[in-house]
Specification:
The chain has 323 residues and is mainly α. It has 16 helices and four strands. It has two domains: 193 residues, Transcription Elongation Factor S-II, Chain A; 117 residues. It binds iron/sulfur cluster (SF4). The site of iron/sulfur cluster (SF4) has 13 residues, from helix 11 and helix 15.
Length: 323
């Protein structure tokens, strides 16, 4: 017998999927309405609120709304929307997990083969391979910055919940879009949602040019396909663009394709970068962040352009000399 509260909190689990399958529930107007709310909240706000009902009779509707949401978001036919939806579902699961009791915490993580053991009150150990597979791409989670012993990585519960978020996100992203034919109510709901979605402009392709160093071009390209860039990468990109003289508004538009984009937060963070006058990290620091992807021979990404000009001038002189 399925644990409905567990399934409602973690509808991506095998237990929840089996419950949906065995229930043979028909898609009702109420489930579609819930799913529409869920998808719109994910795509427009970047988050899905935790459900408020404590009535057990509402739990099945919550579980079915996830299944219907997956069908609806598949109809948007855009990788950006799928990624944004996956991030919102993962964040919702992360919120539940961070305060979850041990039994359900362990059950949810086992969904992704993550087995952990406790080392004291708030210290957990997980196998290094699972850690590497699911840890967020942020400097705090780099293995060199973690305690590793006997093939296991030490984490707090919050960190483990964050790792599980990545696992949820990856699992949703790779399982969508659903290609099977969907009921007409789902198509209708998807069409209504599509009309409310912002048009995705290819901001990055407009600005990407030879002037940008390889590291910055790479970040812009990854952002353009809605990759969830780690914090240090976003920060370095924002610092670069601010120092290159771009306006806060224009930079915020570039970040629009981030799956967890929030206009308010992005504008605040870029303004903060500008007001604090953060300097561009050196190439050596970019390398420690794991962002440097070439050997340009310049001290800082901001000097790349100057370096290119000098190299071109030198090359032209050599060519003229050859003639
Ligand atoms: S060497 Fe500097 S400019 Fe070139 S890719 Fe690395 S960090 Fe960027």
């Amino acid at each position: 017998m399925a644990d409905l509260l567990f399934c409602a909190k973690y509808p991506f689990t095998k237990e929840a999927r089996e419950y949906v399958k065995e229930s043979e529930a028909k898609i009702s107007d109420e489930i579609i309405a819930r799913a529409k709310k869920r998808v719109l909240s994910a795509l427009l706000e970047g988050e899905i609120p935790k459900f408020s009902e404590v009535l057990s009779e509402n739990l099945p509707k919550e579980i079915f709304s996830y299944a219907a949401s997956r069908m609806i978001v598949s109809q948007t036919k855009g990788r950006y929307f799928i990624s944004r939806y996956a991030v919102a579902e993962a964040k919702r699961a992360g919120k539940y997990l961070s305060t979850e009791e041990d039994g359900n915490f362990s059950k949810a993580l086992l969904e992704f083969g993550i087995q952990f053991s406790r080392e004291g009150k708030d210290t957990f150990k997980i196998p290094v391979l699972k850690y590497l597979k699911y840890s967020p791409k942020s400097i705090d989670y780099k293995l060199v910055n973690r305690e590793v012993k006997g093939g296991a990585v030490f984490c707090t519960k919050q960190q483990l919940a964050r790792i599980a978020e990545e696992a949820v996100k990856k699992s949703i992203e790779t399982s969508l879009p659903i290609k099977a034919k969907v009921p007409s109510q789902v198509l209708g709901a998807a069409n209504e949602i599509i009309k409310q979605l912002p048009v995705q402009e290819t901001q990055v392709s407009k600005i990407a040019s030879e002037d940008f160093p390889p590291c910055i071009r790479d970040l812009l390209e990854r952002l353009a396909v809605s990759e969830n860039l780690p914090h240090t990468a976003r920060w370095a990109l924002a610092v670069y663009l601010v120092n290159a003289g771009m306006s806060v508004e224009a930079i915020a538009n570039i970040f629009k394709t981030a799956p967890d984009y929030s206009r308010e937060t992005t504008l605040y963070q870029i303004t903060h970068v500008k007001e604090r006058g953060y300097k561009m990290p050196s190439c050596a620091t970019m390398d420690t962040y794991g962002i440097c992807n070439a050997r340009c021979g310049c001290f800082s990404p901001l000097r790349y352009r100057k370096g290119m000009e000098l190299r071109n001038t030198a090359r032209n002189k050599e060519t003229q000399g050859d003639i």
